[in-house]
Amino acid sequence: MGSLSFDYSGETVIVTGGSSGIGRATALAFGRSGANVVVADVREKPKDPHASVPTHRVIREGGGEAEYVECDVADPDDVAAVVEAARELGGVDVMVNNAGLFVGESLVDLSPENLDRIVDVNVKGTFYGTQAAARDMRERDEGGVVLNTASISSRFAQHGQVQYDATKAAIAMITRGAALELAPDIRVNAVAPGQIATEFSEGGTESTQDRAGDEGFVKPVPLDRAGFPEDLAPAFCYLASEEASYVTGELLYVDGGWGAF
């Protein structure tokens, strides 16, 4: 089968949550495509035990341009600082709001503190990132692209994670609402992953890559495997490209067919 290639030379891409998992794979993909990449995360070191070199350093070692900015996306001042760092590279052209948090607790047991935290990171973080990027693009009188990380949980409820499902549904509406408000100069879309083998839970020690062959993890996926971060990165690159110039307000599901039944 054929393959796609992208050229982002001279463009600046911010990836929140870019130190690990989907964010890392996406940042590396943009870096290989020639973009100046700003990796924004609360931690520089990857969570994935199979990776040791920080994302921005991998890009630099490959001949690309990248930097790391410490950022808690729940803090609008932190997000604004990341966008300001992108200004030094010419201003943000693509904003990938990928940082996210999973809290798997039952509805009756979920604490107010954990509810606040997951809403702060997933919902407010996506909103602040979209807002800050749009302001920068408008102030520079430039178009641009905002991409959010949604989920199959944006549409489908799953047992034991009502709080997570609710935040991902909110991201879907931020995506659609922002697409309406920011058109025609700024496009806003989201990638909606399915069951992706990556370290995700806050404070977790087991990488779900180790579960990729587990029958309970992959059984409901028609393509008969868990996804990997590298399966998501091309979707972000496509939606940010001119090839997707007539696409806005959409969620692109990359789930191995999970949502087909």
From TrEMBL:
- Classify the source by domain of life: Archaea
Does NAD count among this protein's keywords?
A: yes
Native source organism of the sequence: Halomarina oriensis
One matching Pfam family, short form? Answer: adh_short_C2
Domain (Ketoreductase): give its ranges.
11-196
Molecular function as annotated in GO: glucose 1-dehydrogenase [NAD(P)+] activity
Q: Which family does it belong to?
A: Belongs to the short-chain dehydrogenases/reductases (SDR) family.
Name it. Glucose 1-dehydrogenase
Which EC numbers characterise this protein's activity in its record? 1.1.1.47
Enumerate the SMART domains for this protein.
PKS_KR (SM00822)
Q: Which UniProt keywords apply?
A: NAD, Oxidoreductase
Which InterPro entries does this chain map to?
Answer: KR_dom, NAD(P)-bd_dom_sf, SDR_fam
Query: What broad class of enzyme is this?
Result: oxidoreductase
